[in-house]
Amino acid sequence: MGKEINLKNRKSVSVYLKDWCLMSMGGENSDYMEVTEWSNGEGYDIYISRKLSNDTYTDENFDLTYGQFKALKRMIKIIEKSYN
User: Fold this and answer.
1) Do 44 and 36 touch, CB atoms closer than 8 A?
2) How buried is residue 11: exposed, middle or buried, by Cβ count under 10 Å (0-12/13-18/19+)?
3) CB-hemisphere CA count at 13 Å for 29?
4) CA 73, 74, 80 angle in degrees (round to 5)?
5) Residue 61: in which H helix or E strand, if any?
6) CA dist., res. 25 & res. 55, Å (int)
7) With 0-12 CB in 10 A as exposed, 13-18 as middle and 19+ as buried, what is 47?
8) CA-based nearest residue to 63, from 30, 35, 24, 22
9) What is the pTM of this model?
10) DSSP one-letter string for 9-38
11) What whole-number distance in Å separates Cα of residue 57 and Cα of residue 49?
């Protein structure tokens, strides 16, 4: 009996952060963020690559379920309304 293998296409978007963040000025196109939706549609993978001052790179990865992402967006909106 063969093992089942499924090929999936996942939605993904990416940006160079130099146009979005003053702290991300590591070079022309060095600081980068990519968000990819999970295959099951229930969350996101977030990947950030940053160039450090000594010409090395650091990568940050974290995952959020859709509910966690929704809560995070709501909390940020509350902070922005309260302090602006």
Assistant:
1) yes
2) exposed
3) 2
4) 90
5) strand 57-65
6) 12
7) middle
8) 35
9) 0.78
10) ---EEEEEGGGT-TT--SSTT--EEEEEE-
11) 7
Residue corresponding to tokens 């993978």 = 45
User: What kind of fold does domain 12-83 have according to CATH?
Assistant: Nuclear Transport Factor 2; Chain: A, (3.10.450)
Amino acid identity of residue 66, one-letter, is Y
| Degrees, nearest 5: CA angle 76-82-84 | 95
Spell out the domain ranges in the chain.
12-83
What would the two tokens of residue 14 be? Answer: 């990416």
Q: Taking the chain (84 residues) in consecutive chunks of 10 residues, what is each chunk's mean pLDDT? A: 88 92 74 94 94 84 95 94 84
